[in-house]
């Protein structure tokens, strides 16, 4: 077996279905297996997806094992010479896996590779290339110096933003959203550290690969990572879980570092957690008083692009959900520019462009968005009676 794909799922059956649909195309002609480890979802994920994807092996956990442990469970049951851990809220272009495999197979010193992750508007996600969060790198990030000087090799090392997006580069941290690893390297370093329940496990694994002499690489191959865009990173829970993971990492790898460095980093962590708590308290209060936020913007509209069958089905979804919608009969052959041919610039109006994935390829749609990212335009897809955007899922019942 050449490749084992491991996906950990928790209550995101429609996003996972979309991911598996894209993987079906990306794994064509590749000797592979796909294993989904379900962390005790209560949304009927397995029952819904098993009939649609009979080639996928589903492993049901009796309770939520966390990301690290669930991935380790799936990897231990797999047989591939290479392993790809991928998040369920991703879309993988048709050529991404084949090209990533070709790179890691021909570069024998490479332990793991990551790819270019796109946000829902087509812009690049900074998490695609990262340096190790040493105490000083973490301090530069949390103090704002990393964002203020993005081309500085020292101050901006956390996101390595001085590197080109369009060329392969050696990096330090591979994102867990798409983490392809050589099984020999995985076994050598002992797999994912299960002390990390969620967040930080990819940083720790990347660090141990480097310590063992392996190289980690970034490849300019595009995937979409929905939750990289929509995760509420200002929430108290996110701040608490994420930065607690960072403290675990610091204690494990930098336990001898000076308290003069560690204390400011810990203080910044607690400060950010308190800010998130206050922000969420104010947001809850404003909602209880009837104020509407940006997420409830009534000016949003939908543009559906695809074949006749898709357009007719989406009309039903639009009517049932009261959507302001436009319908365009087109395909990749007849309209390779997609929404760029029809879209008028209106930054005051959030537009969700939904493509028919039976007449457009995932790679092509991602390339359209990446070539002209706009903050007020967000990607959507439609297949098998399910409409998916970064914010919501709508079905044609």
TrEMBL record:
It holds the Pfam family Glycos_transf_2. Keywords: Transferase. SUPFAM superfamilies: Nucleotide-diphospho-sugar transferases. One of its GO terms (molecular function) is transferase activity. InterPro entries: Glyco_trans_2-like, Nucleotide-diphossugar_trans. It comes from the Bacteria. This is Glycosyl transferase family 2.
